[in-house]
Every structure is written in C-alpha cells, then in structure tokens.
Design goal:
- The chain has 16 helices and 14 strands.
- It folds into 5 domains: about 5-95, no CATH class; about 105-145, no CATH class; about 155-195, no CATH class; about 200-245, no CATH class; about 245-303, no CATH class.
- The longest helix is centred in the last third of the chain and has 11 residues, at about 290-300.
- The strands form 6 sheets. Strands 11-12-13-14 form a 4-stranded antiparallel beta sheet, with helices on one face.
- The chain has helices spanning about 15-20, 25-35, 40-45, 65-75, 80-85, 90-95, 115-120, 125-135, 140-145, 165-170, 175-185, 190-195, 215-220, 225-235, 240-245, 290-300, and strands spanning about 5, 10, 55, 65, 105, 110, 155, 160, 205, 210, 255, 260-265, 275-280, 285-290.
- By secondary structure, it is an alpha+beta fold.
- It is flat.
- The N and C termini lie far apart (about 85 Å).
Length: about 300
C-alpha cells in the first residue's frame, strides 16, 4: 500500500501511524472519509467535542488555536458547526462556508425558525406545513382559524351520537362492520339493523341441518373452524371436512389412528381425501379413504 502523506509533506507508513501523530482515532478518520472529507480534512481537523483546545485546520489549510476560534473566523456558531458535522455529516468546507438561514418574518415579526413561530403563535407546526404545501402564504397559514371537525354521527332515524363508537355500541355492531358496509353501498338503516349472523352464509350439516354460519356448524360438530376451512381449501367436501376426526391432519407426517399409522396424500375430484396407511397389525401398506381405513381397522382388530 502507498505511503500516507499529510499537508506538511510528512510521510507515514500506515493510516494508524498518521492518526496517532495527529492525535485522532482511525475510526473517526474513516467515518469522515465516508462522509466526503478529504484525507487532510479528516486527519488534521481536531475533535469537536469536550471543549478541546487542540489546534485545528480548515479546508484551506489555515490553522486555528481551537474549533471555537475557527468558527468565529467564519462567522458561525460552534454548536451549529458541530451539529452540521455530527448530525448532518457535512464536509468541513460545507459546514464552515454555508451561511445561516435568514430569520423568518411573519406579520412584521421575526422568528428564529418556523417551529419557533408556531410555538409563539400557538398553532401546530404540522398544520402550518400542510397549508404551505397547499400554496397558502405564511401569514394565512398561521392566521386562518382551524375548522373543528364534527365527530357526531346520525343514524337512519335522525338520532345523533357523539361518535361512531357510541352509535356502534348502541346498535351492538362493530365500527369496522359499519364502515365496511357503508363502503359497499349499504344504506344506513340496513347497515345498523342487520345483525352479523343474519348475513352469514347458511350452511347445511351432515344430516341436512341448517346453520346460520360456518362457525355455528363447526361448533355443532366439535371441529375448529380453521381446520374445517383448511380442509375445504385442500378440496375436501363439506361432509368429509366435518366427519373425519381431527387426528387426520393435512400434514405428510404420520400420525397414529386406531391400529395404524396414517399420513395425508391427496384429495380426489369429488372431495374424498386419501391417506397413506401402514397397518401395525398385519403390516400391510396402502392408500385408502377414511371409510376404507375404518373397514381395514375393524377387520384387523376383530370387530
């Protein structure tokens, strides 16, 4: 690797050696280089923290007794300079030569910043920023009264509620359900008076029983709704999804059922699931349906 040379022409074998000679860490120099500093700036500019009085150099090579004196020469506050270097990751030249922003003037009064103005005029900074983006002047942005948005809700009978939550609680329905129905084009009366169970799809059980929802049907047959829905997604028909015990999972991992080990294989076009079976009594292996598995088990178990 080539030699390392500082502004005075002194040569160093390594970056570490150069940093030690200038009293600065290698990590600091590397971070400054990544932020666009030249090697001379990164190595010969002293640290900015802790009130150090080390001699420092600016981007032109001019030497100063301290960071404070260098900042004074460029007409910039030390805290501003340090914020630009540490938080903004500015280069040394940019941090020293970029002029301070001019003070903000509104209605004949000067403010240090937009935030300072908002605090003194008791208005939200976000509100002012949004208004300025919409093209309002700075005077209008801070002086136009903020419109109070009414949160009252009116139902189909003309009754008023303080909020959507209060109206939803009165009609025993969730806020999300109300919003979803209105977005679908429902009128207010139908939205508020139709109970959730009344719009659930009707389901028919194994013996022709009618259920108002899938949840009610699954509760009746003692099967989790999630398991029922997973089975139907895999092509199982409703009959098999409800009647086959929960031990029959959709996983390929074998599980024990009666006198045999089973694992799911596939589902036929008519919704009949098939399982790979190994009988622990006769040792036979086959792919069988649920009914065939029970027939084989009855036979081997002597039932």
């Amino acid at each position: 690797m080539g030699k390392w040379i500082d502004s005075s022409g002194t040569e160093y074998k390594t970056l570490k050696e150069m940093c030690e000679a200038h009293g600065i860490s290698v990590l600091t120099v590397q971070n400054r280089r990544r932020n666009g500093w030249t090697l001379t700036e990164a190595v010969e500019h002293g640290l900015c923290s802790g009130g150090r009085k080390d001699k420092v150099k600016d981007h032109l090579g001019n030497e100063y007794s301290s960071v404070a004196s260098m900042c004074k020469a460029y007409g910039i506050g030390r805290s501003t300079f340090e914020n630009r270097i540490k938080r903004g990751h500015w280069t040394l030249e940019k941090a020293l030569t970029t002029p301070l922003l001019s003070k903000l003037v509104c209605n004949g009064r000067e403010y240090r910043s937009r935030r300072d103005m908002c605090v003194k005029m008791n208005i939200s900074l976000d509100t002012v920023n949004q208004r300025l983006k919409r093209g309002m002047s700075i005077e209008d942005a801070v002086s136009v009264p903020i419109k109070k948005v009414s949160k009252e809700c009116v139902d189909h009978t003309g009754g008023t509620f303080k909020s959507l939550r209060e109206m939803a609680k009165f009609y025993k329905i969730s806020c999300n359900t109300i919003i979803d129905r209105l977005n679908k084009g429902w009128d207010m009366e139908k939205t508020l008076t139709t109970l959730p169970k009344e719009i659930s799809c009707e389901c028919t059980g194994l013996n022709g029983e009618a259920f108002v929802s899938v949840r009610k049907m699954c509760e009746h047959y003692g099967i989790k709704r999630s398991k029922f829905e997973n089975r139907t997604r895999y092509g199982w028909n409703t009959k098999n999804a409800l009647r086959i015990p929960c031990e029959f999972s959709l996983r390929k991992i074998p599980v024990d059922y009666r006198s045999m080990s089973i694992s799911y294989v596939t589902c036929s076009s008519n919704g009949e699931p098939f399982f790979k079976v190994k009988c622990n009594v006769c040792g036979e292996e086959d792919v069988l349906s649920y009914d065939e598995i029970n027939e084989h088990a009855d036979k081997c178990e002597g039932r």
